[in-house]
Every structure is written in structure tokens, then in C-alpha cells.
Write a structure and sequence with these properties.
Length: 230
């Protein structure tokens, strides 16, 4: 008898083999040896299937983040999320297009939120930064996976060589540095900048975080702007 776990496992196998764009319920049914209609008992729509796949991809990401201070654990969480996304073809695109309210997905988010709260950010700002950090991980990993699939004769190097757009020497050098660098090193740099930004914000505010001032508005005094940490 076909189980829901079989459907999700088969979908992830198909994802790895053919990519996200080729994933359909019909193709999955063929892979599992059943009609597409038989899948609806377990996943009522393609959206539900993608949600279930994303939840499976994130299994364990937010668990057992013990040892070290909040920054070390946040750093570990970000790298763990990146590795989970890279473990499957188009894994980052898959997760980026879903909004799952289930254990693995919410657990990863709450893990990040809890660490930022421990650091001293107010709840609202810890929530904002949790999403900002996850967007960074998703975006970086989407680009990693997309660039890895480009053919040698049409990758970034080849496209830049064919381009007739003039570039400053500085920007040309920066692009070369990006293309030649280790993706893990670049990713790590971004996470460290994010962590440094949290530390800087906390040390510049008397009581932790503060709500950002809208553009064009007068900045309130430190006494009225400061907000308590949680």
C-alpha cells in the first residue's frame, strides 16, 4: 500500500534526478507506478506536495544547537540550513516557494528567533532578522545551485567575456573575486557580517534593540527609542 512517506521520498528522488521544473504529479505517479489520482489521498495538490517536500528537506535543521554562545550557534544554524538545501537539486528553490506551518520548518525559524532573543534583540526585531537571515541563506543557495548548472561555455566567466558593457576596474576585479572564491567562504562572510551587525546594534543601544526610524522622520531620543530585550 502506498504511504505518504513513500510519496514524499519518491518526489525527492524525482527532484534530484530531473529538477524542480520537471516535477509533476503525473511524473511522480509514473515513478511510483500509480495513477496521479492515487496521490491525492496523500497530497491533495502539487502545492501540498511541495510543502511536504520542503518540510522533509528541513528535518533536523533547528535541533540540538548546543554549545557556544548565541553567535556560534546562529552561525552553526545558518550553515546547517545551507547544507540541507544543497543536499537536493533545486533544494533552495523548493523551500523558497513554500510556506509550511509544520515542525521542521517552524522549528528552524524558532531556533533562529530564540538565539537572537538570547542575544538581546526585542521579539519584533528578532523576528524580522530571522526572516532576513533565512532570505539570505535561501538567496545565496539558489544562486549557488543555479551557477553550478551553467555549462562551461556559457557560465559567468564566458558571459562576462562576451559582454560589451564597460566596467570599472574595481568592479571587474570584484566580480573576478566573487567567481574565483569558495562559495562556503562567501556565505560565511555574509553570516559573520549579519552577526556583527547584531552585536553593533546591541552595543549602540542602551537596552538592546530599537525600532528603526522611518526615512525623513526625526530620530527620537535614546530614552524613548530604547526597547527592552526579551
Amino acid at each position: 500500500m502506498l504511504r505518504r512517506a513513500d510519496v514524499i521520498e519518491g518526489a525527492l528522488y524525482l527532484l534530484d534526478e530531473e529538477g524542480l521544473d520537471a516535477l509533476t504529479l503525473r511524473r511522480l505517479g509514473e515513478r511510483l507506478g500509480v495513477r496521479a489520482s492515487a496521490l491525492y489521498r496523500h497530497v491533495p495538490s502539487k502545492e501540498a506536495l511541495l510543502d511536504a517536500m520542503a518540510e522533509a528537506v528541513l528535518e533536523g535543521v533547528g535541533e540540538d544547537l548546543d554549545g557556544g554562545d548565541w553567535a556560534e550557534r546562529f552561525h552553526c544554524l545558518a550553515h546547517r540550513l545551507r547544507r540541507a538545501l544543497l543536499a537536493h537539486r533545486d533544494g533552495a528553490r523548493l523551500v523558497a516557494g513554500t510556506y509550511v506551518a509544520a515542525r521542521n520548518t517552524l522549528g528552524a525559524g524558532e531556533a533562529a528567533f530564540s538565539l537572537l532573543s538570547v542575544a538581546g534583540l526585542p521579539e519584533k526585531e528578532a523576528g524580522w532578522l530571522t526572516f532576513a537571515a533565512f532570505y539570505y541563506v535561501l538567496g545565496h543557495t539558489i544562486e549557488e545551485q543555479a551557477q553550478a548548472r551553467l555549462p562551461t561555455d556559457d557560465n559567468w566567466y564566458a558571459r562576462l567575456e562576451r559582454s560589451d558593457t564597460p566596467l570599472s576596474a574595481g568592479f571587474a576585479s570584484a566580480l573576478t573575486a566573487v567567481l574565483e572564491s569558495d562559495p562556503v567562504e562567501r556565505f560565511d562572510y555574509g553570516i559573520e557580517i549579519l552577526i556583527d551587525g547584531v552585536r553593533s546594534r546591541l552595543t549602540s543601544s542602551p537596552r538592546g534593540g530599537s525600532s528603526p526610524t522611518p526615512r525623513g522622520a526625526a530620530r527620537p531620543s535614546a530614552g524613548t527609542a530604547a526597547r527592552g530585550g526579551h
